[in-house]
Structures are given as structure tokens and as C-alpha cells.
């Protein structure tokens, strides 16, 4: 099995003649197939553990890789920013704030960007244990359902919306939008707009989790914590 892994690394990742680059690509490829603890990452790439750790740590500095609370390596937010045009500063500033929000709420946290007729998850943090809801980075979701879609609708960033005007007015007044079992059965969420210094909405920050934990009002349960996290993020920007 190890010979097969090494063959894979050589065939797909060690063709440029620049060893450190080829090894970095091998590590990213391995992590892209699913988060890996160091030992497994070393095994899959066929690289010594010390070498794997050194390169992965360097990739983390550039946000190409990141680490979960358990220490496993996972794909970082920079890869999403390369394809979406997202500001690296936004992702860099959001990462520790999102982790703190996960620690506070025990729920999953996402950062969305408006991408035409969809909203795209550009960063996500998950709790290490318990029942949760995962939105992979890069996922493109509807603008017709969910709390994040309501935020975009409230600030007239999408043309047509199924949401009532009174509901959108409340989003503008409180800064919070919520949904329960709307986009997906059993899922609830609360979202808020993230603005730049000019007041333009540049992203939406969300907390999501099982409806049984967040009902009857996700905003009532975690709205205050979400608004505090948003304020920290806007200050960092």
C-alpha cells in the first residue's frame, strides 16, 4: 500500500523538478481528499513526518491549509479566495473570530459571499464534537431560502425575493435574519451582514445547527454573540 502511495505522489506531484513545490502539492492533494492528522498525512504522501509538518505549517501561514481544534490538517480559506476573488484580509481576519464563535455557541459557523444568483461559502468552522451541520467551503447555495439569503434580500443585493417586506425590514432594524427548517428540514440558522468601512455589505456571517437546539428563535439564542463577532470582524477590517 505504501508503495502505491509513493507511486501516486511521484506520478502526480513530483514532475516539476522543484522538490519543495512537488511535496507541497502532494500534501495539498492529500488534504483535499479529507482532513488528515499528521501521521496519516505523512503516510499518504510518503514523506517523513518532520518534512510533512514543516511544509504543512508553512502552507498554514499562507492560509492554504488550516488546522482543526483536534490538530488535523484541512484545506484553508485561501484556496477559495483564489477562485472567488475574496479579499485575503477578510478570510484572515474572519478565521480566529469564527473559531471563537464556534467555541461560544457550540454550533457551526459560515461566511458567505454573494456570487451572482447564489451565495458561496468562502469559510467555515465546525465544532469538534456533537451533532452539527457542515457546509463545505465552495458550496453554492440558494438565495431563495435561509437566513443568509434574507440578509442579501434585506439590503437589496438580489433582484427578486420570496421574503415578505415586513420581515426584511426587521432584518435591517435588528441586523439579524433567522430561519428554521426552511432550506433544509432539521436545520436552523441566524445570519448578519458584514460591512466594509464604506458601509457596503461584503459578506454574511452565519451560525447554523440542528433546529431542535436553535428553535424557536436562532436569533434569540445566538444573535447577541453573532453581532459581537460581526463587530470584531468589521473592526479588524
Number of strands: 8
Q: With helices defined by DSSP (H or I, 4 residues minimum), what is the helix count?
A: 10
**CATH fold node name of the largest domain:** Beta-Lactamase
- How many independent structural domains? 2
Beta-strand content bin: 15-25%
The low-confidence parts are: 1-13
SSE order: HHHHEEHHEEEHHEEEHH
N- to C-terminal distance: 47 Å
- Roughly how much helix do the residues carry, as a percent range? 40-55%
Could you give a short account of the major beta sheet?
Answer: 6 strands, antiparallel
| CATH homologous superfamily heading of the largest domain | GAF domain
CATH class of the largest domain: Alpha Beta
What keywords describe this structure?
elongated; Beta-Lactamase; disordered N terminus; 2 domains; alpha+beta; Arc Repressor Mutant, subunit A; two-stranded antiparallel ribbon; transcription; 237 residues; DNA binding; transcription regulation
Layout: helices, strands, pairs:
Layout: H1 2-13, H2 19-32, H3 38-45, H4 49-61, E1 65-67, E2 73-75, H5 77-84, H6 88-105, E3 108-115, E4 118-125, E5 140-141, H7 147-154, H8 165-174, E6 177-180, E7 187-195, E8 201-210, H9 211-214, H10 218-236
Antiparallel strand pairs: 1-2, 3-4, 3-8, 4-5, 6-7, 7-8
Helix pairs in contact: 2-3, 2-4, 3-4, 6-10, 7-8
Amino acid at each position: 500500500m505504501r508503495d502505491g502511495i509513493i507511486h501516486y505522489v511521484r506520478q502526480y506531484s513530483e514532475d516539476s523538478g522543484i522538490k519543495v513545490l512537488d511535496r507541497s502539492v502532494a500534501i495539498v492533494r492529500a488534504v483535499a481528499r479529507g482532513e488528515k492528522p499528521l501521521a496519516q498525512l505523512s503516510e499518504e504522501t510518503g514523506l517523513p513526518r518532520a518534512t510533512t509538518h514543516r511544509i504543512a505549517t508553512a502552507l498554514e501561514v499562507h492560509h492554504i491549509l488550516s488546522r482543526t481544534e483536534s490538530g488535523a490538517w484541512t484545506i484553508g480559506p485561501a484556496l477559495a479566495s483564489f477562485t472567488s476573488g475574496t479579499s485575503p484580509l477578510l478570510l484572515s481576519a474572519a478565521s480566529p473570530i469564527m473559531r471563537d464563535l464556534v467555541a461560544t455557541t457550540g454550533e457551526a459557523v459560515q461566511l458567505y459571499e454573494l456570487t451572482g444568483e447564489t451565495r458561496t461559502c468562502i469559510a467555515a468552522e465546525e465544532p469538534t464534537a456533537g451533532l452539527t451541520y457542515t457546509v463545505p467551503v465552495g458550496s453554492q447555495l440558494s438565495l431563495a431560502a435561509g437566513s443568509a439569503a434574507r440578509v442579501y434580500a434585506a439590503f437589496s443585493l438580489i433582484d427578486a425575493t420570496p421574503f415578505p417586506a415586513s420581515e426584511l425590514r426587521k432584518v435591517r432594524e435588528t441586523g439579524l435574519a433567522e430561519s428554521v427548517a426552511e432550506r433544509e428540514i432539521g436545520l436552523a440558522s441566524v445570519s448578519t451582514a458584514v460591512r466594509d468601512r464604506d458601509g457596503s455589505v461584503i459578506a454574511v456571517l452565519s451560525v447554523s445547527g440542528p433546529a431542535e437546539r436553535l428553535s424557536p428563535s436562532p436569533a434569540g439564542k445566538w444573535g447577541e454573540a453573532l453581532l459581537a463577532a460581526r463587530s470584531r470582524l468589521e473592526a479588524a477590517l
